[in-house]
Specification:
mainly beta; disordered C terminus
């Protein structure tokens, strides 16, 4: 599928938005704690696109990052996003910042939280893109289950303008699914999965959503996000 159309959006940097649909193979490099150690490779080239590191555990990044922050790094090791838990927060809120998040009075790019302080399988996750690089605000929804590696990010009202409700339709802009070994035709474990991106959708922002889901829902199979459980506000 080619062409981003109205679903194209730049959250942080247009370098991470490609003209064609894209697939990343995401691999967990440690299974001891959710969010610790992820690597994402471009499916076409096999080259490293992103990796995730936790500040304060021997990482190479510094700046204004705090211990426990999650760093999304680019292929050359440059900090792209920093995801930080907000404390105190009954809703398990996480904020995402551009770069290492250390700039003075830097506002978060996005914020994510549980919709209920009770948590559990029936609890949703809300995400707001607070400071987009370009474009109009839009609402996103994640359907499915991240722990089962079967969920998708949907943007509502992608075909028309923000005031054209009659022409609005839902468009899938990203999807998480299980990885299949193409040679052996075997379904791989949940520590390796595919992140599919529609043309024009910001891959770094999509990885930020993956980090938030991994931290909030973890890998427990009862941590299921039902239809309409996650929403985001972002430009398209």
């Amino acid at each position: 599928m080619k062409g981003g159309g109205a679903a194209a959006m730049v959250a942080g940097d247009e370098r991470y938005c490609e003209a064609e649909d894209r697939e990343l193979t995401v691999r967990k490099t440690t299974l001891f704690s959710p969010g610790d150690g992820l690597e994402a490779y471009d499916h076409r080239t096999g080259e490293l696109a992103f990796r995730v590191e936790t500040y304060g555990r021997g990482g190479v990044c510094g700046g204004g990052a705090a211990a426990g922050d999650l760093a999304l790094l680019g292929a050359e090791g440059e900090p792209v996003l920093t995801v930080r838990r907000r404390r105190p927060s009954l809703h398990h809120r996480w904020d995402g910042f551009l770069g290492d998040g250390g700039a003075a009075q830097q506002k978060p790019l996005f914020s994510a939280r549980r919709s209920s302080i009770l948590g559990g399988a029936g609890s949703g996750v809300l995400v707001d893109l607070l400071a987009p690089a370009a474009g109009h605000a839009a609402e996103f929804r994640v359907d499915g289950s991240f722990p089962r590696r079967c969920c998708r990010v949907v943007v509502a009202g992608a075909s028309g303008g923000v005031d054209d409700e009659e022409g609005a339709e839902e468009v899938v802009v990203a999807e998480v699914r299980r990885k299949v070994d193409e040679g052996a035709h075997v379904l791989l474990g949940r520590d390796v999965f595919v992140l599919w991106l529609r043309a024009g959708f910001d891959a770094a922002f999509a990885m930020g959503i993956v980090l938030v889901l991994d931290r909030i829902t973890g890998d427990e199979l009862d941590g299921v996000l039902g239809d309409g459980m996650l929403e985001a506000t972002s430009p398209v």
